[in-house]
Design goal:
heterodimer, A: mainly alpha, globular, B: mainly alpha, 3 domains
């Protein structure tokens, strides 16, 4: 009995030692400030780094791939390639990420419309507009594409005059929103110069 | 001739010699005593030291062969007695064993104390983080920023021309990235 207790005590002592050593080592690790924390958020306006360049290069490659598929008339493959841009990881807070994704959505929506997938195209645009962090020329472009989708819907609803008219009105509203954003941004840019 | 009380200390008799009547009587008495003890009977209040030693030896031998289950108190007393005798003969004293037993605890406690002290030191010390890149002091072309100024208004005819735009954005940012990397003052902004 006593021997078992002694063995148990020695095991507990060893465990405590290992745990304490682990904690101490972990603390030393925290002191290593040269290593960037995995959870540290990149501040907006941070300098261009390798991570951003890698993400942009990836987006560029997927666009080129899609372009080749489009020239071959393989639109489904082009759609798949553009979709991959949406799942690319960019440095947190990088303004380029928003721009690249919105532009990819605009192209994706146009490709989907060309395949007759109008509702899917509208969903793609709506998701993009809902996730927009700020107004930009890319968001304005997305409104333009939204107007085009409304127009496509109106064309499909020729038999139902009332609904087609609604879609045309929605298209005009989208174009107006696009124009409004473009004008405001241009004005801001001119003032900045 | 050995008396009843000094049978163990008396000289060893000739193995071929016939046992004496006294020896036979002593052997018979001891056998009865042994049987009685093994059967769980109480020891007689008075008995010679030799008989007691022989009886205990017989008990230990029987117990070690599995013939007898000793009570914990009996076992404990036999072990204690053995240890005491061993200590008297110069074996490791019980206090030494105890010290040995306590050694892991002492080491663990000391390590814990050191670790706690280190943790407290870390917690109390204000971490001196290296200065972040002073983004305000670097050229705009080195910064991550919106592509609005670069791309400008997107005409409706070019709404789906995202491929050309990403080329333009990539080329521009690559220029800034390289400029920062190659520049001697780029060290101020940190290595990319």
């Amino acid at each position: 009995m006593r021997s078992r207790l002694e063995n148990h005590g020695a095991s507990v002592a060893l465990l405590v030692l290992v745990l304490v050593s682990g904690i101490a080592l972990g603390s030393c690790e925290l002191q290593d400030h040269n290593k960037p924390s995995a959870t540290e958020l990149a501040e907006p306006g941070a300098v261009i780094d390798q991570e951003l360049m890698a993400s942009l290069a990836q987006a560029k490659n997927f666009h080129h791939k899609a372009k080749v598929y489009m020239s071959d008339g393989n639109i489904p493959a082009a759609i798949a390639s553009v979709r991959q841009i949406l799942s690319l990881r960019f440095p947190t807070g990088a303004p380029e990420a928003d721009d690249v994704r919105q532009d990819a959505r605009a192209l994706l929506a146009k490709l989907l419309v060309s395949q007759g997938e109008v509702d899917e195209a509208m969903k793609t645009v709506d998701e993009g507009l809902a996730s927009a962090a700020r107004e930009s020329f890319f968001v304005a472009n997305l409104y333009t594409v939204q107007g085009e989708i409304h127009e496509a819907r109106a064309a499909q609803l020729d038999a139902d005059k009332a609904k087609a008219a609604d879609e045309r009105r929605a298209a005009i509203a989208s174009y107006d929103r696009s124009i409004q954003i473009n004008e405001a941004l241009q004005k801001r840019l001119m003032e900045a110069r | 001739m050995a008396s009843e009380d000094d049978i163990l200390s008396a000289p060893v008799p000739d193995p071929d010699a016939e046992p004496t009547a006294a020896e036979r009587a002593h052997a018979r008495a001891f056998a009865e005593l042994l049987d009685k003890t093994m059967a769980g009977g109480a020891l007689p209040p008075a008995m010679s030291a030799d008989d007691r030693a022989l009886l205990e030896m017989a008990t230990v031998i029987r117990s070690s062969t599995g013939g007898l289950e000793l009570s914990p108190s009996k076992l404990h007393s036999i072990v204690e007695q053995g240890l005491r005798q061993a200590t008297d003969l110069g074996a490791t004293p019980i206090t030494g064993a105890r010290r040995k037993r306590l050694l892991p605890w002492v080491v663990a406690s000391a390590s814990t104390l050191v670790a706690v002290a280190a943790l407290l030191l870390l917690w109390l010390r204000t971490p001196t983080r290296p200065a972040r890149t002073d983004v305000a002091s670097v050229p705009t072309s080195w910064k991550s920023r919106s592509a609005d100024a670069l791309i400008g208004r997107i005409p409706r005819s070019a709404a789906g021309d995202a491929s050309a735009r990403i080329d333009h954005i990539f080329a521009d940012r690559l220029e800034g990235f390289r400029d920062r990397r190659m520049s001697a003052t780029g060290k101020r902004g940190g290595k990319p």
